[in-house]
Structures are given as C-alpha cells and as structure tokens.
Design a protein that fits this description.
single chain; 398 residues; mainly beta; Porin; 20 strands; globular
C-alpha cells in the first residue's frame, strides 16, 4: 500500500498543462505574449511589474492594465508495446482555462521613485483524464489555483540606468489531487522577493530580473479511499527561483528586436514531504516523494513593428525545455520540450487607452514513454500534445 501511494503522489503533485516548463505559466502579459515573452529589456507598460520592474522607472504618469489569457490544450495518449494493457488510448479533457492578470504603475516626481503592483497567476495547473484511462487510478485529476501579489518600487540611478526591488506574496488557495486511491487537497501561502535592473538608451537596452524562491507552507486533508479514513495533511512546497536576462535593439524608430534567456531553478522542487495527523493507515505519519527535477533555460525571440502611429504588429518564437526526465514522468504532466510561435497586435483606441491582442501556438515534442516500471508501467505510451492560447488586455493611462 505504501509503495502504491508513494507512486500515486509522485504522479500527481504539481503537474500542469503542457504550455509551460514544469508548472510555470509564462503568459503574464499580452504585449509580451506577442513578442515571444522576450520582454525583460523592453518592459515599457504596466506588465513590467512582472517581466522587469525596473522598467517602471522609465514610465510617466499612472496606468492600469487588465487582461487575461485563454488556454486551449489538447493531449492524446496511445499505449505502446511496453504497456501491459496495449493497445489502449485516451484523451485528456479539453478544458478551456482562463488566466487573468492586473497591473498598476505610477510615478512620483516629488519622491523621485516609480511604483507598481502586479496581481497574476504565474504558477498553476488543471489536468483531467477520463476515469477509464489505464493510469487513472494513480493519475486522474490535478488542480492548482494560486495568486501572486507583487508590489514594486523602482528608481533611476542615472538617465540610462534604473533599479527595482519588490516583495512577493504567493497564495495557493485551492489545490486538489484526486485518484481512486488517495484524494488529497490543501492550501497555503508564502513570501519572497524580487530585484531587477534596466539599462536603456535610444537604440539598445539590457535588462536583468531575478525572483527568489517561495516556500509555501500548506495544510489540508487526505482520504484513504479503501478505508474512508480522512486525516489532516501538512506539506511545504518550494516555488523555484527565476532569472531573466534580456536585450532589445531599436534598428529604426519603428522596430524593436528583443531576445531573452530565462533560467528557472526547478532543482528547488526536489521532493514533496507530507506529514499526516493522525497517522494514515497503511502509510504512516509521513510520506516523502523524490522529484529530482532539473534547472532549465528557455530562449525567446521577439519583434515589434510600429507600422502606423497607432498600430503595432508583433512576432515571437520560444524554445522551452521540460525539467522532468523520463524517470519522473507522469501523465498529469504529459509534456516534453516545447516550441512556440507568437503573433500579437496592439492598437491605441484613444489617447489614453491601448488594446493588445495575442495568439500562441505551442508545439510539444511527441513523448514516447518506455521507461516507467512497477505499478507505473501503465503510463508507457505515446503522448501527443499541442496548445492554443489567446490573450487580450486593455491598458488605460491617466
């Protein structure tokens, strides 16, 4: 029983839809979406709160951005000859997911500082397989809903250089991991910090943004289906620290070319350690699940063409590798290395309001899983995935 529950927990915890590495959601700004998220050295609207808060220091007045991203994933599974239940096939539920965001930016000439706040959801998940899938007993449904609140202060060191610091509050307010053996839920929160710099000239920008890890201390309940026993659980989960390095070049007044390298330290997500009160029958008072994810670098390219005084076209490309090896593979994270093409459009609908739209197509490399063993052998098979994302936001300056 303990071995089965260990495999169950390893299968479901912190899996996400396949459009991002690990359980990260990079679509935190619609203008940036259109430019491949290569925005660390651009950061010229209120979404700078997330991509590079030092960009707030170069913005004038006050502005608010409100927007969201619709995620349309598709995942299909078919067993291979290494699966004892071959042939069999299943398709994940085609959910339509909405990821909202809000940003505020402002400046104070009297104090010589700029400030802002971002409210978004950079980490999350929802993945559901039918109960008839061969692996559904251990990996059928996972959900993580969380909110990130991040106030920032930025100031200019010189006309070209700005620095910023901020505080991060992360609240995982709804986490569910359900299988036929051990449904579990919990919620919790934690704190971190961020720091950033932006060097900006008329033709060339360099940006750096760092976000610390965040330790989430959470509590909830776990139910052993076989005995209907429900106990309290406690777990500490570490969100990874992240580093983004970007450059932007303005070859003409109408064009911006940008590139980013984003490092996510998934090594911080090394294990999951549950404690149960009272003792969970057949399991004990604790359960530790090794994860052993690896740190990854994602590479992003973007461009913006201001083809009129009020309209802009955007283009981008992303390569984003998976942090999970074949050994740690789970059907609730059926992704692999990803490539994405990005398209975007921006229009000034008045002197104060700007509408941004974006579309992303994510092509996930087909995974042919063959190394799952033991009770996990039913995961072996071919996983084919792709994702469509649509984003829209409105920025109002006042």
């Amino acid at each position: 029983m303990r071995r089965f529950l260990l495999l169950f927990s390893a299968a479901v915890l912190f899996s996400t839809q396949v459009h991002a590495g690990g359980f990260q959601i990079p679509e935190m700004g619609v203008k940036a979406m259109g430019m491949g998220h290569a925005f660390t050295a651009v950061a010229d609207d209120p979404t700078a709160n997330w991509f590079n808060p030092a960009g707030l220091a170069f913005q004038k007045g006050h502005a608010v951005t409100v927007g969201g991203v619709v995620v349309l994933p598709k995942v299909d599974f078919s067993s291979n000859t290494s699966n004892p239940f071959h042939p069999t096939s299943s398709s994940a539920d085609k959910k339509t997911l909405l990821v909202p965001h809000t940003y505020v930016a402002g400046s104070s000439d009297d104090l010589g500082i700029s400030y802002g706040i971002g409210i978004n959801a950079p980490f999350g998940l929802e993945m559901e397989w039918p109960t008839t899938a061969v692996f559904a007993g251990a990996a059928q449904y996972g959900r993580l809903q969380a909110v990130n609140i991040n106030p920032n202060i930025a100031f200019k060191v010189s006309e070209e250089l700005a620095l910023a610091v901020g505080i991060v509050y992360a609240n995982m307010y709804k986490v569910d991991f359900n299988g036929t053996a051990l449904p579990q839920n919990f919620k919790g929160d934690g704190w971190g910090f961020n720091a950033a710099a932006l060097y900006k000239t008329e033709q060339f920008n360099i940006g750096v943004s760092y976000r610390s890890d965040v330790k989430i201390k959470a509590n909830g309940s776990s139910t052993l289906t076989a005995t209907t026993q429900t106990v309290n659980n406690a777990i500490t989960v570490t969100m990874p620290d992240m580093l983004s390095i970007g450059v932007a070049f303005h070859p003409t007044d109408r064009w911006t070319i940008s590139a980013d390298a984003d490092w996510v330290n998934w090594k911080k997500f090394d294990q999951l350690a549950f404690t149960y009160t009272p003792t969970l029958a057949g399991v004990g008072s604790s359960l530790t699940v090794p994860e052993n994810w690896k740190a990854t670098w994602a590479f992003r390219l973007g461009a913006e063409w201001e083809y009129s005084d009020t309209m802009r076209a955007r283009f981008g490309y992303t390569y984003d590798p998976t942090p999970i090896s074949d050994v740690e593979f789970t059907p609730l994270l059926p992704g692999n290395d990803r490539q994405a093409v990005h398209l975007g459009y921006g229009v000034d609908i008045s002197d104060q309001a700007t509408l941004d739209l974006a579309y992303i197509y994510v092509l996930v490399a087909t995974r042919n899983q063959t190394v799952s063993t033991g009770t996990s052998i039913v995961r072996n098979g071919t996983y084919k995935s792709d994702v469509h994302l649509l984003g829209a936001s409105l920025t109002y300056n006042f």
